[in-house]
Design a protein that fits this description.
Length: 75
Amino acid sequence: MNTHILQGKKEMLKQRLRILILQNASEGSEYDDKFLLEMHQISEQLLLLRHMTAARERTALNRATGVMPVFSAHT
């Protein structure tokens, strides 16, 4: 996925999150299961896209500088 597509998807998810929050606030009701589940799903997708974007940027930077990633075992 290119960076432009990832950015577009992130913006779409952020907009959906804003709409969802405003809809719930205007209803003045308690958080229901549907609202919380959708919030969780959107947040999870946003985090995944952020991680993908960061990994892509690190890879591009490493290629530009000639740095090879180092892997180490954690104990």
